[in-house]
Write a structure and sequence with these properties.
CATH class of the largest domain: Alpha Beta
Number of strands: 6
Number of helices: 7
Strand content: 15-25%
CATH superfamily of the largest domain: NADH Oxidase
Largest sheet: 4 strands, antiparallel
Structural class: alpha+beta
Number of domains: 2
Bound molecules: flavin mononucleotide
Strand order of the largest sheet: 1-2-4-3
CATH topology of the largest domain: NADH Oxidase
Helix content: 25-40%
Order of helices and strands: HHEHEHEEHHEEH
């Protein structure tokens, strides 16, 4: 499966089979997480066999079942933390999809457990369930491209491919509070709207845009962080 296939195939999955990750899957995820943590100064953690994170009332309310494994989205408290967790979390989410696994981002409906290591100078911004889904999930209701990119119809093909990818991304409450613009100097601006998860969403969208548009085809108007 290519990353483009993974972008199409990924949907949030909230019910999981009681089937553990393989040793190969654990190793691949742990290796990539270690690399990201080093490179991006994050403290992402693969937490295995921890059903307590999703056995409370909140998880039940959120229709989660069989969640045993997750990636804890942790890093040092810094203004750019949420956006970086979104960006690198999106990469991990699509890597998991390519390994035949399913995922769901969770900002709210989980419980913290002692297996999530959060230092005094760190914050957790949510978790990502990971495992063998009972189903492959469902395509979310799509927003119109012009809602997140007002100039979509006049834009070059690479820009439109970027936006097409973003529209398939996970987004808190499926809100897509973001605006992408192709500026006169040829660079791309991505601006978060207002919502409690807008910064995480923005990081996710920027990763998806890069994968859709091709990093070689454009530059961001300003550094992502
Ligand atoms: C930052 C973030 C937080 C989320 N929090 C929750 C959550 O607390 N509970 C939940 O059931 N889904 C949560 N989701 C999943 C979204 O509801 C889901 O991504 C969205 O509805 C789009 O569906 P899709 O992921 O299947 O494309 C979250 C997604 C993101 C990106």
């Amino acid at each position: 499966m290519t990353i483009q296939d993974a972008i199409q195939a990924r949907h949030s999955v909230r019910q999981y089979l009681q089937k553990p990750l393989s040793e190969e899957q654990k190793m691949q995820l742990n290796n990539r997480i270690a690399e990201i943590n080093r490179q991006a100064d994050l403290h992402l953690q693969l937490v295995l066999d921890d059903p307590k994170a999703f056995d409370g009332r909140l998880a039940h309310y959120g229709k989660f079942s069989g969640v045993e494994n997750l990636i804890a989205l942790v890093g040092k408290k810094q203004p750019t933390l949420s956006q970086r967790l979104g960006y690198y979390g999106a990469e991990l989410c699509l890597s998991a999809q390519m390994m035949g696994l399913n995922t769901c981002w969770v900002g709210l409906t989980y419980s913290r457990t002692e297996n999530m290591l959060i230092g005094p100078d760190e914050a957790i911004k949510g978790v990502m369930c990971i495992g063998h889904g009972a189903t492959q999930g469902q395509q979310h209701p799509m927003k119109a491209a012009t809602r997140i990119a007002p100039d979509y119809d006049q834009a070059p093909e690479w820009f439109r491919r970027g936006i097409d990818a973003v529209l398939l991304a996970p987004s808190a409450l499926n809100q897509f509070r973001v605006t992408f613009r192709l500026l006169a100097d040829g660079t791309v601006e991505a601006k978060a709207g207002l919502s409690p998860y807008a910064k995480i969403d923005l990081g996710i969208f920027c990763y998806y845009f890069e994968m859709g548009a091709g990093k070689e085809n454009f530059r961001w108007a300003k550094a992502l962080w």
